[in-house]
């Protein structure tokens, strides 16, 4: 845990392939944060859903099967559904008093709005730390078209000059395999969705008075992590 009193919420934003997955794993390990991977949370939720199962948010029914279809086509699962699933998870985790790092949430202003009241009340605006990993669309496309994950823990390995010769996961030694999601047309849809839905979050957080730390994601994995670690360490030193 970073500090003795309330938990922190660390959020990573960035285009698909910006390196959010890799950097959240590194940051979580170094600073002892609980990592919540939104795609994994959704996958688990969907995998255990019974046929015809719904999620009810503010009186509206959302059929799980419809959400799953959207997801496979590269579109965002509806905000209310994602946010509801995340909020349930956060409620459980906050009872432990641990710092939390999110991977893959929020993807849109709408998603964030569904949980903002909860987060402000339970964590506090001053304890939300946002990182934006900035990469060009060209890098995003290139990295995603050759992206792999490891068999054992699903650690993401982007196509990157640092990683192209790897055949096993550097964290646990299991085999690296291609991801089913990463069809070129699906990647293009995800990039459009990022531009339309995720990028406006930068303004949204800044208007809320929450500072966004912009990090150049074109650098090597180690250099990106160096910058993030520096910002995290500075924050911790101010806390003590
Ligand atoms: Zn691994």
Output mean pLDDT: 89
User: What is the CATH superfamily?
Assistant: P-loop containing nucleotide triphosphate hydrolases
The structure class reads alpha/beta
Biggest sheet architecture: 5 strands, parallel
Reported by name, the CATH topology is: Rossmann fold
Q: What does the oligomeric state look like here?
A: single chain
Strand order of the largest sheet: 2-5-1-6-10
Count of β-strands: 10
Q: What's the gyration radius in Å? A: 17 Å
Q: State the distance separating the first and last CA atoms.
A: 12 Å
- Overall geometry: globular
Overview of the structural elements:
With 240 residues, the protein is α/β, with parallel strands linked by helices. The chain has a single domain (9-41, 99-239), classed as P-loop containing nucleotide triphosphate hydrolases (Rossmann fold, 3-Layer(aba) Sandwich), CATH 3.40.50.300. The chain is built from nine helices and ten strands. The strands form three sheets. A five-stranded parallel β-sheet has the order 2-5-1-6-10, sandwiched between helices. The chain has a three-stranded antiparallel β-sheet with strand order 8-7-9, with no helix packed on it. Helix 1 (20-31) packs across helix 9, helix 4 runs parallel beside helix 5 and helix 6 (137-145) packs antiparallel against helix 7 (184-198). The chain is globular. The mean pLDDT is 89. The chain binds zinc ion. Zinc ion is lined by residues 150, 152-153, 155, 169, 171-172, 174. Residues 150, 152-153, 155, 169, 171-172, 174 line the site of zinc ion.
